């Protein structure tokens, strides 16, 4: 149905139309493998007020946390031992579950009512979009998704482990939360541990 | 609060487009003059000016406009409220007359947005790395696509149904000489256009344009005194809400609850229901959003938006025509002007002056905008009785 002029042709000049080259996907293991050398452990304080640690690079597994691996957001907790997990907040007054600390509870306004809450690694896909046009430097297409976690809490992240094809993504399907070091570093070369969702195993 | 009704005594907009060589003050002044002329008054009659602009919120745009149209020394208030900026400016004027401070105020909304990127939002943290593209996308086409897909999950709304919104609004715009575009876009073309963020293709995203719109608001006493009752549009309701706490709000801006709350308040204030409406201009920043607002505004029952689309009920001539202007998709979305331009469209129909796209016999209409972050503005308007 080609038209001589299509609406919004001029938007192409917006400067965000460039598609960065697609970075080859490696076969990521769903869970981060990490080892720990206590003497070199680095301990910092997260925004949620809980200690987190990261360790030196370790040769075991596909993904390892180097001594400067950091949580991608305050939601990610990296414990001394065991797997990383997501930690939100739950208001002990009204039960609202939130993802980041606030001056008071967003639902009831209660002060000092928020307690840390470990979020589940399982949930259901609530919504998604397949993103084709992104800011420069971002690999497309990718699937942006929203998932409701078992026991409460809703997260948004990339849905991985599926083709970016609407026919192959089932709304409401069971998902698992997985952790991976992301292939993006900050200006100091620090690497970050991200969280993603994928169809339940 | 005063019991007197408040009226839109004059209102107009410039044709939306791309005006790289015209300043924002000049665009705003043009719309202001059109509205003053429509009301048959001058800047010397205006007691306060409410200016809406988002992208230059620190630039005193209201005063810049004032310097173009006459520095009479009246109070100027600059408003910024995301995509509800224009509606907020208009409502601030309404509030001041309602409080009894003034009898005549001018509200102007203006934005220069042509050539702006389509994505908006997104971006990243000031420290660490940007999570954009890792933790999903905060870009607007994606945010509103996800909102639409949540509707799909609940009710099975299809890509084709979402796309039909763009077909309709582009069709309506062919009858609106003030719209940015007047081009038919058949379904196949909409669905095959560049996919921006599934299910929103490029033709299902609002058009970034330059634009301005303005309205003269008057107390009932002043409208009668100036003999303007024959053209004055009564503001039956003016409502502004924000997003109350909802469980997914932190990762999925909730455009539904604030709209539902605003609609309930507006219907109550106006003493009408959705079945009394003859037309609606709603915030179709993306095609997916329009579908949600059919239900949010009560134009149909929950889960029946798809049916409303299939039955073409929201087309010109349908049971409840929506976005006869062409909507943000084709008329264009100059953010600060949008909320007043929507009121202009509804008012024009209520005054019987919409030409080929006229909603026949329109008496009551609703104008709705959403600003992400989040807020919702709704105005319910009633046309002159003669
Ligand atoms: Zn609470």
Description:
The complex is a heterodimer of chains A (201) and B (386). By secondary structure, chain A is mostly beta strands. Chain A has one domain. Helices cover 0% and strands 33% of the residues of chain A. Chain A has a six-stranded mixed sheet, with no helix packed on it. In chain A, strands 4, 5, 6 and 7 form a four-stranded antiparallel sheet that branches. Residues 1-6 and 9-63 of chain A have low confidence and may be disordered. With 386 residues, chain B is of the alpha/beta class. Chain B has a domain at 6-116 and 208-225: Thiolase/Chalcone synthase (Peroxisomal Thiolase, Chain A, domain 1), CATH 3.40.47. Helix content of chain B is 35%, strand content 18%. Chain B is built from twelve helices and eleven strands. Chain B has helices at 24-39, 61-69, 85-98, 140-155, 159-173, 187-192, 220-225, 255-270, 287-296, 305-310, 327-330, 335-350, and strands at 6-13, 48-52, 76-79, 104-111, 195-197, 200-201, 211-219, 233-242, 279-281, 364-371, 375-382. A nine-stranded mixed sheet of chain B has the order 3-2-4-7-1-8-11-10-9, with helices on both faces. In chain B, strands 5-6 form a two-stranded antiparallel sheet. In chain B, helix 1 packs across helix 2, helix 3 (85-98) packs across helix 12 (335-350) and helix 5 packs across helix 9. Chain B is globular. Classes of the chains: A mainly beta (201), B alpha/beta (386). The site of zinc ion (ZN) has 9 residues of chain A, from loops.
Please provide a brief summary of the model:
Helices cover 0% and strands 33% of the residues of chain A.
Main sheet strand line-up of chain A: 3-12-11-8-9-10
CATH-scheme architecture of one domain in chain B: 3-Layer(aba) Sandwich
What's the story with the biggest beta sheet of chain B?
Answer: 9 strands, mixed
| Topology pattern of chain A, helix = H, strand = E | EEEEEEEEEEEE
How many domains is the backbone of chain A divided into? 1
How helix-rich are the residues of chain A, as a percent range? under 10%
Spans of chain B of at least 5 consecutive residues whose pLDDT stays below 50 are none
Per DSSP, the total helix count of chain B is: 12
Gap between N and C termini of chain A, in Å? Answer: 43 Å
CATH superfamily of one domain in chain B: Thiolase/Chalcone synthase
Number of helices of chain A: 0
Oligomeric state as shown: heterodimer
Order of helices and strands of chain B: EHEHEHEHHHEEEHEHEHHHHEE
Structural class of the secondary elements of chain A?
mainly beta
């Amino acid at each position: 149905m080609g038209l001589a002029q299509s609406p919004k042709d001029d938007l192409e000049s917006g400067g965000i139309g460039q598609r960065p080259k697609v970075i080859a996907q490696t076969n990521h293991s769903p869970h981060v493998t990490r080892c720990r050398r206590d003497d070199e452990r680095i301990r910092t304080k997260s925004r949620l007020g809980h200690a987190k640690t990261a360790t030196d690079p370790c040769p075991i597994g596909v993904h390892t946390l180097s001594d400067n691996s950091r949580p991608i957001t305050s939601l990610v907790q990296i414990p001394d031992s065991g797997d990383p997990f997501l930690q939100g907040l739950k208001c002990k007054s009204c039960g609202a579950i939130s993802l980041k600390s606030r001056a008071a509870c967003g639902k009831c306004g209660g002060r000092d009512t928020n307690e840390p809450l470990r979020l589940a690694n399982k949930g259901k896909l609530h919504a998604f979009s397949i993103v084709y046009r992104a800011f420069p430097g971002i690999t497309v297409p990718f699937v942006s998704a929203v998932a409701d976690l078992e026991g409460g809490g809703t997260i948004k992240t990339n849905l991985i482990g599926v083709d970016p094809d609407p026919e192959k993504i089932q709304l409401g399907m069971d998902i698992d939360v997985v952790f991976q070091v992301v292939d993006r570093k900050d200006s100091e070369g620090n690497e970050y541990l991200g969280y993603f969702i994928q169809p339940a195993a | 609060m005063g019991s007197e009704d408040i009226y839109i005594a004059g209102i107009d907009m410039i044709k939306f487009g791309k005006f790289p060589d015209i300043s924002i003050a000049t665009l705003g002044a043009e719309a202001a003059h059109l509205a003053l002329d429509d009301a048959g008054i001058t800047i010397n009659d205006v007691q306060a000016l409410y200016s809406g602009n988002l992208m230059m919120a620190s630039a005193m745009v209201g005063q810049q406009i004032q310097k173009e149209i006459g520095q009479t020394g009246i109070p100027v208030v600059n408003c910024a409220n995301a995509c509800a900026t224009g509606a907020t400016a208009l409502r601030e004027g309404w509030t001041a007359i309602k409080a009894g401070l003034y009898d005549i105020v001018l509200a102007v909304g203006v934005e220069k947005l042509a050539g702006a990127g389509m994505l908006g939002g997104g971006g990243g943290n000031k420290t660490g790395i940007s999570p954009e593209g890792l933790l999903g996308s905060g870009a607007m086409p994606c945010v509103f696509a996800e909102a639409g897909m949540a509707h799909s999950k609940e009710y099975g709304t299809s890509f084709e149904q979402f796309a039909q919104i763009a077909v309709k609004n582009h069709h309506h715009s062919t009858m609106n000489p003030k719209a940015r575009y007047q081009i038919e876009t058949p379904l196949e073309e909409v669905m095959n256009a560049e996919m921006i963020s599934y299910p929103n293709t490029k033709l299902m995203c609002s058009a970034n344009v330059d634009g301005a719109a303005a309205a003269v608001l008057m107390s009932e006493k002043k409208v009668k005194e100036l003999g303007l009752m024959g053209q004055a549009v009564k503001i039956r309701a003016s409502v502004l809400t924000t997003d109350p706490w909802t469980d997914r709000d932190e990762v999925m801006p909730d455009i539904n609850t604030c709209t539902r709350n605003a609609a309930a308040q507006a219907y109550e204030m106006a003493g009408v229901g959705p079945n009394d409406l003859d037309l609606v201009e709603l915030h179709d920043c993306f095609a997916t959003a329009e579908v949600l607002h059919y239900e949010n505004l009560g134009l149909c029952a929950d889960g029946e938006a798809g049916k409303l689309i299939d039955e073409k009920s929201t087309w010109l001539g349908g049971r409840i025509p929506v976005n006869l202007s062409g909507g943000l998709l084709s008329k264009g979305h100059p953010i600060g002007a949008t909320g007043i331009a929507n009121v202009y469209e509804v008012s024009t129909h209520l005054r019987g002056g919409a030409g080929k796209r006229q909603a026949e016999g329109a008496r009551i209409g609703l104008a709705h905008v959403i600003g992400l972050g989040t807020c919702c503005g709704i105005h319910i308007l009633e046309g002159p009785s003669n």
